[in-house]
Design brief:
This protein has 315 residues and is mostly helical. The chain is built from 16 helices and no strands. The protein is globular, with a radius of gyration of 26 Å. This is ABC transporter permease subunit.
């Protein structure tokens, strides 16, 4: 029996190598990405053991003493960590509530425009903020929201009796600044997936709807939006699973000592504890815990969105 298995196995190996060399162009494109993932996504998983050790820069992965779940117990008692969780959830939920449907609306509006220079202009203008880094956008916001900045100048010109204030120095304003600036930056880019899906809709659906007397709005609600159901579900799953994530670049640019009570999010807290203070074990434990919760949210959101797709998962 073993003698029969070995020839079959050798035949399969020869077929695999034959197919590999027949597709060498595609393999040349794929394997650099596979190697990149192995090096930067899979090998670092071993570093998660730091969360269960008392690791310092003087130790190695083997010599650092095991402390079990001590780091996680410290997390549960850490007031500053829970403050960062509250800030992260508040900002993320506001982004979902205000920003999730805007790319859908904008994509439908762009799709309904006739082909021409105006449509291309609208797309270009909406995409442009995405290609500016948060360093650039942060500098613009810091300038615009200063005491002599654009916002105070516009409000004064409109006749509002305002005190010249720096809005970024107020912790109470930070949530709205972070949410609205993120929406401004990402809404246009978020339309790309929706527009790609809309471009594949069979035009005969709309022609038949016109013959039946459907209005433009009825065509949107009965044809366009149902066709977007799958991609909306996928984006919703990814958005919900990322609720505990946050934009570190945005936070590091806009955060200062005055607004830190509202600006400190989980990612910036992990960065501060791990890089600035050198507590690598604690920072790794926080990151591991957040990753586990994010996976749980991913599974829950997937089950929720199945109802939008006739009990079919989009993942």
């Amino acid at each position: 029996m073993n003698a029969a298995v070995k020839p079959k196995r050798s035949v399969r190996i020869k077929r695999w190598f034959k197919k590999f060399f027949e597709q060498w162009e595609l393999q040349t494109m794929v394997w650099p990405g596979v190697i990149f993932m192995l090096i930067f996504n899979f090998l670092p998983i071993y570093g998660l053991t730091i969360a269960f050790r008392s690791y310092t820069v003087m130790d190695t992965m083997q010599t650092a003493p095991w402390v079990g779940f001590d780091n996680f117990e410290i997390i549960l008692r850490d007031k500053f960590f829970w403050d960062s969780v509250v800030n992260t959830l508040a900002i993320s939920l506001l982004k979902v509530a205000l920003g999730f449907f805007l790319p859908i609306i904008l994509a439908v509006m762009i799709f309904e425009l006739r082909q021409g220079p105006f449509k291309k202009l609208v797309q270009t203008i909406s995409y442009m903020p995405y290609f500016l880094s948060w360093i650039v956008l942060g500098g613009m916001l810091i300038n615009w929201l200063s005491t002599t900045g654009l916002l105070n100048t516009i409000l004064a010109g409109l006749g509002f009796n305002i005190r010249n204030q720096n809005y970024l120095l107020s912790a109470d304003n930070y949530y709205w600044i972070a949410v609205l600036s993120d929406i401004w930056k990402n809404t246009g880019w978020g339309t790309i997936l929706y527009l790609a899906t809309l471009s594949k809709i069979d035009p005969t659906y709309y022609e038949a709807a016109k013959i039946d007397g459907a209005t433009r709005m009825q065509q949107v609600t009965k044809i366009t939006l149902p066709m977007l159901r799958s991609i909306i579900s996928l984006n919703l799953i990814l958005t919900i699973s990322g609720l505990l994530g946050s934009n570190l670049d945005q936070t590091m640019v806009l955060m200062n000592n005055q607004n830190r009570p509202r600006a400190e999010v989980i990612n910036s807290y992990v960065f501060d504890m791990g890089i600035a203070q050198g507590d690598f074990s604690y920072a790794t434990a926080v990151g591991l815990g957040i990753s586990i919760v994010s996976v749980i949210l991913l599974l829950i959101s997937n089950q929720m969105t199945k109802r939008l797709n006739d009990n079919t998962s989009v993942l």
